[in-house]
């Protein structure tokens, strides 16, 4: 699989402030992902699979600013910053029956990742916020990890499955493409590899001739070197960097998930889900004056819930409505900026045939404003009693046409 994408964006501050300072970035990323698998015949115990994976990506970024009046052609650009990733993985999994209704599965994955960064020295003029700089760097680093997984599942009866699992996960470390103020003394050019252990127990049920499917699970996740996007600020809340990844936190998350899918009638299908999570920083000394240990993990809602109804009154016509809710969410690690519970409504109407589908949809029907990024109390504006955060998409409608051949 290969994919290339380019994003060009410009950002302004406020209304009357718009002519004072604006920032932009030109980002280009190309990646390739290759995977080969060899597996046993379906239904012939024991079940096994082995495989190899190779991933390559290249990313280029140009940061720019405009201080004072002007148009897009007047932005001052910093020099090009580039990074490259190359990952290799070998994996295998074996499922062995222990009797007619009990199975054990074991898996092992080895991953090795190389990260590279190249840039010449550059500067980014933010006007009253100062000048951000980045040094000339030609860096590379290697990361590797062995990732085990084990699970046990049991079917006491044909329509009930009970399972438990434990697995290790990770995200390789890497290098930031960004810029910082001269007031920043630490090394934020690189970040470490995140590792985690996940433990889960759950059940799945099929009822009423499989017209109703129920599932539930409880989980605990413990992560070290937790990776987060951050913008560095000083004691007065003034911004000291562009967006960076940091990895100096440890977290613990625990919770449960419930899900149900059922056909009320041959024409009406319901899907509902609910999840609760208690997630906190178990160790997060961000700086000498910032200790967030014990706080809730930012951007993790206390719960999420959804309800979707699909109705097919006659062959070809589909009417669908959705409601998606999220509970109280902290927008910063200090737990000072909070988003109250929100509900988003979506709707669609479609006409479907074996070959083509035409669909009209509206997302965020009530045009609800939802914050989707970390919040900052100053953000180059000075203290004015406002937290600044990114906002999700407003009401969006569209027409989609698809054809199969």
TrEMBL record:
Gene Ontology biological process terms from the UniProt entry: iron ion transport
Principal subcellular localisation of the protein: membrane
Ranges for domain TonB-dependent receptor-like beta-barrel: 39-365
Localization (cell): Cell outer membrane
Signal peptide as annotated in the record: none
InterPro entries attached to this UniProt entry: Beta-barrel_TonB (IPR000531), Beta-barrel_TonB_sf (IPR036942), TonB-dep_rcpt-like (IPR039426)
Pfam families in the cross-refs: TonB_dep_Rec_b-barrel
PROSITE patterns on file: TONB_DEPENDENT_REC_3
UniProt topology in membrane: Multi-pass membrane protein
Keywords tagged on the record: Cell outer membrane, Ion transport, Iron, Iron transport, Membrane, Receptor, TonB box, Transmembrane, Transmembrane beta strand, Transport
Top-level taxon of the source organism: Bacteria
The family this protein is said to belong to: Belongs to the TonB-dependent receptor family.
PANTHER family linked to this entry: FERRICHROME IRON RECEPTOR-RELATED, TONB-DEPENDENT OUTER MEMBRANE RECEPTOR
Protein name: TonB-dependent receptor
Native source organism of the sequence: Croceibacterium xixiisoli
